[in-house]
Design the sequence.
């Protein structure tokens, strides 16, 4: 009888541990989430100047090449025209890709929750089965 | 008694294994997804555009309002982009309805010079960007820029290059040319942390203009 109780306890503990494992795995993924979402505001800060541009740009399209700075003085650094066909050459490479860790971690989380639930179900079923068998056998 | 106990522990071990597999499987799935995405970025084509006689008529200045690339199902309004405070080129905002943008310090499409259009490859949680499949373009593919004055400048892809951001070919992209050309720029290559390592740059030359 003591063995039955011990076995049942061991199974319950295993089931609990199994449930905890995905929780640990889950808690690590959000740490990666804030940094990308933190990058989003910086990117969403971009539309502010571009939203401001249409007020000046459509009407001032012809003088664009002559005076690039006044057309968006608040948003753009004052850089002298380079004199080429591209009047102001940007520095560095464009950053035109924002990765999507949120959706990935969502999938991951779903898998972990599913796995954890399956494990708990299996462990619970096994415990019930063992206890019932032992009761039947009179252990 | 003993066999039952073993069975119980075997079941418990199986349950633990299941959890492990579930978690890892999901991670592998995500990884495989990013690998698939990387796979789509690889195409790279030959040499820079060769100077060829172009019968298309050069157009005057008029800002582009729409860009169409039938080969990769792109049909996007164009916003205007300037410079970011750090001196880099502005990029379109991160929104669900991702749009491409024309760098307004470059010539308008159809004018002599390199007209520069930028778009995202992915827009974070919103998924694919407007230039998601830019790297799939091939020489000769058609690009149509509709302009504010109602005219249309049609371009043909001459080269698709994937280059490391660290070695961004500013001269090839922004340097002077003797005919109307178009540059489409997005990100590509493998991810390096939260960023893409490379830029995908499509070079195209004017093939036709319509009034």
Sequence:
């Amino acid at each position: 009888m003591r063995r039955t109780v011990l076995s049942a306890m061991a199974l319950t503990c295993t089931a609990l541990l199994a449930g905890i494992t995905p929780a640990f795995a889950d808690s690590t993924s959000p740490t990666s989430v804030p940094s990308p979402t933190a990058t989003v505001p910086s990117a969403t800060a971009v539309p502010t100047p571009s939203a401001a541009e249409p007020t000046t740009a459509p009407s001032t399209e012809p003088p664009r090449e002559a005076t690039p700075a006044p057309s968006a003085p608040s948003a753009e650094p004052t850089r002298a025209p380079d004199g080429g066909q591209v009047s102001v050459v940007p520095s560095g490479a464009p950053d035109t890709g924002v990765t999507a860790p949120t959706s990935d971690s969502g999938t991951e989380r779903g898998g972990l929750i599913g796995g954890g639930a399956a494990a708990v179900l299996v462990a619970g079923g096994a415990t019930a089965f063992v206890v019932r068998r032992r009761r039947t056998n009179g252990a | 008694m003993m066999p039952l106990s073993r069975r119980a522990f075997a079941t418990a071990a199986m349950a633990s294994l299941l959890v492990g597999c579930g978690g890892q499987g999901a991670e592998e799935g995500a990884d495989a997804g990013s690998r698939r995405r990387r796979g789509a970025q690889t195409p790279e084509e030959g040499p820079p555009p060769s100077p060829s006689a172009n019968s298309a008529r050069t157009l005057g200045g008029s800002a582009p309002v729409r860009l169409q690339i039938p080969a990769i199902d792109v049909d996007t309004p164009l916003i205007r982009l300037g410079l970011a405070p750090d001196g880099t080129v502005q990029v379109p905002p991160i929104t669900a309805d991702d749009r491409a943008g024309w760098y307004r310090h470059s010539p308008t499409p159809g004018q002599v010079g390199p007209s520069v259009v930028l778009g995202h490859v992915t827009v974070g949680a919103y998924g694919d960007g407007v230039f998601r499949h830019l790297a799939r373009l091939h020489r000769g593919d058609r690009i149509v820029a509709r302009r504010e004055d109602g005219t249309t400048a049609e371009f043909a892809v001459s080269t698709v290059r994937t280059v490391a951001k660290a070695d961004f070919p500013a001269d090839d992209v922004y340097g002077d040319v003797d005919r109307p050309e178009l540059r489409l720029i997005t990100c590509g290559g493998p991810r390096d942390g939260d960023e893409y390592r490379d830029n995908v740059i499509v070079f195209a030359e004017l093939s036709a203009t319509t009034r």
The two ends of chain B are 91 Å apart (CA to CA). Chain B has two domains: 1-39, 45-210. Chain B has a mean pLDDT of 81. The first strand of chain B starts at residue 64 and ends at 69.
